[in-house]
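SUBJECT: A protein chain and its fold
Encoding: whole-number codes for local backbone shapes
RECORD BEGINS BELOW THIS LINE
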Amino acid sequence: MTTTPKHDERIATMTFASVYPHYVTKVEKKGRTKAELHQVIRWLTGFDDVRLQELIIENVTFKTFFEQATINPNAHLIKGVICGYRIEDIETPLTKEVRYLDKLVDELAKGRKMEKILRSTS
């Protein structure tokens, strides 16, 4: 199932700050920590805690968020279905990156080991 232009546009214009509290709630409800969430976000995007907080305060869109990110070279190893879409089949780069983040948060909430979430190759 591929995404539609309308779906891609909706994701691009959504703000990271509007979704971030839901990520925090999701992982904390399952016994994980905000620090672990930040570790996952840092792995994918390269953003440290200070930069992440700045982006939240600036209320940036996902488009801007990912334009400023340095995507981890192992992000392509993130596979599976999230929000009804198979990540490998998503053609729009931004939508794929957002779904990478969603998948990592989901894995964290499900109790997956951090080395598996961060696609450690060693």
Observations:
- The longest strand covers residues 81-82.
- Strands lie at 81-82, 85-86.
